[in-house]
Each structure stands twice: as structure tokens, then as C-alpha cells.
Design goal:
Pathway: Cofactor biosynthesis; (R)-pantothenate biosynthesis; (R)-pantoate from 3-methyl-2-oxobutanoate: step 1/2. It contains twelve helices and eight strands. With 275 residues, it is α/β, with parallel strands linked by helices. The chain has two domains: 4-235, TIM Barrel (Alpha-Beta Barrel), CATH 3.20.20.60; 239-272, no CATH class. An eight-stranded parallel barrel has the order 1-2-3-4-5-6-7-8, surrounded by seven helices. Helix 6 links the parallel strand 4 and strand 5. Helix 5 (92-106) packs across helix 6 (119-128). It binds 3-methyl-2-oxobutanoic acid and sodium ion. 3-methyl-2-oxobutanoic acid binds next to strand 6.
Amino acid sequence: MKTTMDFRKMKENNEKIVMVTAYDFPAGRAAENAGVDIILVGDSLGMVVLGYDNTVAVTMDDMVHHGKAARRGAPNTFLVVDMPFGVCHLSTDIALLHAIRLMQETGAQAVKIEGAGDMLPLIQKLTAAGIPVVAHLGLTPQTAGVLGGFKVQGKTASAAKQLLEDAKRLEEAGAFMIVLECIPHQLASEVSIHVVVPTIGIGAGKGADGQVLVYHDLVGYGEHHVPKFVKQYSHIFPLIEGAIRTYTQEVKNEQFPSEVHQFTMKEEERLALYG
Ligand code: KIV
Ligand code: NA
């Protein structure tokens, strides 16, 4: 399993870092078998697995439940689990308790926290407590309601300047990695040059030190809207639907189950049924 130090070295050596999300056992297994560097149990879980419109409804229990499942599928891959909506905003002590729970119950190597500003003292505290923190800037879905929707961030000079400043502060506070979501590629490149810690882009162009995609978007699993920045490497949903449709037909017309799918008892035992 790689370490936070390995990711920093990968950046120094211009070796791209690959992250993908996973929320259950088979996805964790597939990601580990495919050789990704990091698995993120993202709260995007709420949208692509649980069917919510956003990530606000996702709870700590959801994160623990799915984090454990992903971990069982990927015991040897660096695992990051998202701190869900709200839990970081009551106090640093309460947030620390939640982060400890995520680390201990899922076996994660790190937690991810959206935002800078108010989150800086918390990131300091978690890092001091031995909990590595991934930061998340740009489009931060947990505050989409305040941002006015899922929109590209950092497009104006002043917004870009703020984001660059936030990235530097996050690095100072101890974040070992920064996710940059949905920002202009020039800004992502600029940030990546100005911080020592690796950046992981999603909708942030090729200048980031690594990339992350949501599992269901990447493999085409679901009917949800897929953002412009996603590349779909397969479309498994129609295959699944087709399989279930064929199964339905075969049960109806008694093609399934056939002899190969059934068990047989000895004839004398069958006759003894009535004896
Ligand atoms: O929840 C998630 O999947 C994320 C990634 C998009 C970075 O936070
Ligand atoms: Na997330």
C-alpha cells in the first residue's frame, strides 16, 4: 500500500496519481485489481448509489457502512473516506470524534474535508492527531446550495486568486493532498505549481498531479446525468438491464432454470418419499 509520502514523491517525479471512488465490495475489488493508487469512498455515494439529488442527506452511518464494504474489497489500497455534510462544522472536537470513527471503523488511511477557511484549524488538529487529511476546493458539493448549484468555480481573477490562496493555507495547515473539482484548467495548473502537496483534479484539466472519477460515471452504471468532465470508459447499465430482461423472459417461458441449474435426488430416495 502506498503512503502519503509516496504521493508526494510521485508528484516530484511527475508520475500521475490515479484515484477512483468505490462504495462497495465489488467496486473496491475491481479498483484494487486494476491497480489504482487511491480509492475514495466519496459522499457522491448519496447521488450515484442511494439516489439522492445531492450529498446533503449522506450520514456518518452511510459513510461507515460503505467504507467498510469498499475496504473489504480493497484491503491493500490507500483508502480515503469523505467526512459527510455538516459533521465538520459544529466544533473541531466533534469533527475529530467523527474522523476517529471513520478511521477506526473503515480502516481508512485518510479522511477528506471540503473547503478551507473555517476548516484550517480542524485540518491542523486532525493532522496533529495522526489523521491524514485530503482537502477539497473548487466545486464543493456539500455547499452547492450556497454556491448556487453544480457550477464551474474560480472563473474570475478574484475567485481564482482566493482559491490559490486557500490551497496554500490548506497545505500550511497540514493537508497532504488537495482535490480540485470543476475549475478552469489554467487555475488547476497554477495551484499545482504553487503547492508542494499533490493535487487531484476532477473537471480540472490535465495540469493536476492526479485525477479522480466517480466509479458509476467512469463505468457507465446508472441513468444519472454525467457531467462534461467525465470520460465514460464503458456503459454497463444497458448490459445489466438486458441481462435482467432476458432472465425475466426465460422464467416466463420456462427456459430457466434448465437441467444444468438444478439438483437431482437419487430415484430410490424419491420413491421413499411416499413409502
Ligand atoms: O464524493 C466524491 O466522489 C468526491 C469526488 C468527486 C472528489 O468528493
Ligand atoms: Na465528496
